Amino acid sequence: MIDWMSESFFILLAWIMIGSGVVTMITLLLGMKAHYGRYAPVNARSIPARWGWLIQEAPSFLLPAASFWEAPNLGCKVIILLIVAHYTNRTFIFPLQLKNPKPTPLSIVASAFVFCLWNGYLQGFYHAWYYTFEPGHFRQPISILGFVLFFGGMAINLHSDEILRNLRKEGETEYKIPRGGMFEYVSGANFFGEIIEWFGYFLVARSLPAAAFSFFTFANIGPRAIQHHQWYKEKFDNYPRRRKALIPFIL
């Protein structure tokens, strides 16, 4: 019988996430696309995008927020607060700021909800129940670097989202070339920011669940940045030639 609250179960969840990340990366690099936004099937059963974001992201906010009160010390609470800070925006603020969003396919909402349920439980309750760290952990150089990357990546992600929102005027639906901020260097500036953010989270926490989520984020949205880059180049003849897909000046 599975003990849903044992440490070994959380470790299993983390390793499954890493394995899922490998499979996800391979399938995306081979050409599979996430069926929403510009890649959504025309006749897919869908719901309004704002409701879709709220529903699918809610577990990633609610479960860590609930686990916060069970965390035994300030260190554990700090780790959990990093998750809560990100998903406060992604669950409640980001959906309200969308302009003329396309409906989101129900299949995407359902799959994202399952992942957020899984990850919210893993990140929140593992760090509330089983996470331990030595005195001075947050003063170590690697932890300080992690905080810098987390909040720096979050700033890039938020700024990039703002640029994408403001590309369209009221009533417009066509795609345009994003410019400004990290978009001057990469097509997936919002993805780049989020990857940096969760890598910083891993450097702060240095736990297997944090590593699993950081890796899965890279494996999931890294290839999508490459897909977006190729799509932009095919759609726009004047797309900036020096702009890379995900990593400035490199990839």
From TrEMBL:
UniProt-listed InterPro entries: 3-oxo-5-alpha-steroid_4-DH, 3-oxo-5_a-steroid_4-DH_C, SRD5A/TECR
Keywords tagged on the record: Differentiation, Endoplasmic reticulum, Lipid metabolism, Membrane, Microsome, NADP, Oxidoreductase, Transmembrane, Transmembrane helix
Topology of the protein relative to the lipid bilayer: Multi-pass membrane protein
Residue ranges crossing the lipid bilayer per the database entry: 12-31, 104-122, 142-159
Pfam name, any one: Steroid_dh
GO annotation, biological process: androgen biosynthetic process; cell differentiation; hormone biosynthetic process; steroid biosynthetic process
E.C. number: 1.3.1.22
GO molecular function, one term: 3-oxo-5-alpha-steroid 4-dehydrogenase (NADP+) activity
Compartments (UniProt record): Endoplasmic reticulum membrane; Microsome membrane
Catalysed conversion reaction: 5alpha-pregnane-3,20-dione + NADP(+) = progesterone + NADPH + H(+); a 3-oxo-5alpha-steroid + NADP(+) = a 3-oxo-Delta(4)-steroid + NADPH + H(+); 17beta-hydroxy-5alpha-androstan-3-one + NADP(+) = testosterone + NADPH + H(+); androst-4-ene-3,17-dione + NADPH + H(+) = 5alpha-androstan-3,17-dione + NADP(+)
Domain of life: Eukaryota
GO cellular component, one term: endoplasmic reticulum membrane
Main location: endoplasmic reticulum
Function: Converts testosterone into 5-alpha-dihydrotestosterone and progesterone or corticosterone into their corresponding 5-alpha-3-oxosteroids. It plays a central role in sexual differentiation and androgen physiology.
Family recorded in the similarity comment: Belongs to the steroid 5-alpha reductase family.
Protein name: 3-oxo-5alpha-steroid 4-dehydrogenase (NADP(+))
Provenance organism: Pristionchus pacificus (Parasitic nematode worm)
